[in-house]
Structures are given as structure tokens and as C-alpha cells.
Write a structure and sequence with these properties.
two-stranded antiparallel ribbon; single chain; Sufe protein. Chain: A; Arc Repressor Mutant, subunit A; three-stranded antiparallel sheet; 2 domains; binds FE2/S2 (inorganic) cluster
């Protein structure tokens, strides 16, 4: 079922594992080195149906209309993937994050191979609540500092106080970081 991928066909390879569910996702990119547009996006996941759907739609998004440039692809957010999918249940948001992270890992790998080291970026923080300007790194830090429930994370960060719509995603992140670190 899992035939071997001929990695020599690709010039950007990414891999990410999910501490939240133990699943894994791999991405192989074929990038045109002149235009830096993504010409092929091959993927394989041992994740759930939501991960498969999110990754499949991502492969369409980055290759349609002649392909996104690497910089355009890097600007894609899990939210863009979820909107294009027509929604995902809150407890499945980490599945789309998985695919977004694997793509970023593959883009970094391309730049590493192309020796464009200045273009390699670490995982940037993401704003989860634009009202209180709380990022995923703030949630991560709150969990590392001992918060284990939404209430305690809210006391520490004020996340979602004026913006309850972000709370399902915050709960997902709390679960993700607890499983990552503890
Ligand atoms: S990828 Fe593991 S539950 Fe979706």
C-alpha cells in the first residue's frame, strides 16, 4: 500500500509528527528553481480523515493556477485551509495545523538545499486571539508554567475574554501542549 517515494524527484521534503494524536505527515515538494513556484505536492499521512482532507485540499491550493511561490505558500494559515474545506470540528483543528507545519518544513528544506539560508524561518508564533493579541506561544508558555485548564490559561493570558469565538481553538492548543510537554 505504501510504495516507496522516489525522493530524488523532489527538492523540498517536510515531516511533522503530532504530539496531540501521535499521527505523522510527510510532504514532498517539486519546486521550479527559476520561479520558486510549487509544481508538485506529494503527501502521505498516517493521520485521520480530517488530516487527509486538509492535506488534499492544501495540495490543490498550492499547485493550482501554475503553483504558488514558496513565499505565498508560507503565508497560508490553517484557517485558510479550514475555510476552503468548509470547516472542521474544533477538536480536529490540530490535523490542519499538522499539514501547514509539514508544508513549512518542506519549504525550509528547499531553501536549505538551495543554500538560501537567510530564507529559512523557525516556527513563527501565530495570533490565536486578535482581540487580546495572544499568540500560540503565549498559550504554550502558560501550559509550561503549569496551566492545565482553559480557566487558568485565561487568567494568565486573558485569551478569549473579549473574543469567545477563539476558545475552541485555544482548548485544542492547551491539549496539544499538555500532551507535548507532560
Ligand atoms: S491527524 Fe491525528 S487525529 Fe487527525
Amino acid at each position: 500500500m505504501t510504495e516507496k517515494v522516489d525522493e530524488t524527484r523532489y527538492n523540498g521534503i517536510g515531516k511533522v509528527g503530532s504530539p496531540a494524536c501521535g499521527d505523522e505527515l510527510r510532504v514532498w515538494l517539486k519546486v521550479d528553481s527559476q520561479t520558486e513556484k510549487i509544481k508538485e505536492f506529494h503527501w502521505r499521512t498516517f493521520g485521520c480523515g480530517s488530516a487527509i482532507a486538509a492535506t488534499s485540499i492544501t495540495s490543490e491550493m498550492v499547485t493550482e493556477n501554475g503553483g504558488m511561490t514558496l513565499e505565498e505558500a508560507r503565508k497560508m494559515k490553517p484557517q485558510d485551509i479550514i475555510i476552503r474545506l468548509g470547516g472542521l470540528p474544533a477538536r480536529k483543528i490540530h490535523c490542519s495545523v499538522l499539514c501547514d507545519k509539514a508544508l513549512r518544513d518542506a519549504i525550509n528544506d528547499y531553501y536549505r538545499r538551495a543554500k538560501q539560508f537567510d530564507k529559512i524561518v523557525g516556527e513563527a508564533s501565530r495570533v490565536v486571539d486578535p482581540v487580546s493579541k495572544v499568540t500560540d506561544h503565549d498559550i504554550e508558555q502558560a501550559v509550561k508554567d503549569g496551566a492545565r485548564t482553559l480557566e487558568v490559561v485565561q487568567q494568565k493570558t486573558k485569551v478569549g475574554i473579549g473574543n469567545p469565538a477563539c476558545l475552541p481553538a485555544v482548548e485544542e492548543l492547551i491539549k496539544f501542549y499538555i500532551e507535548k510537554y507532560f
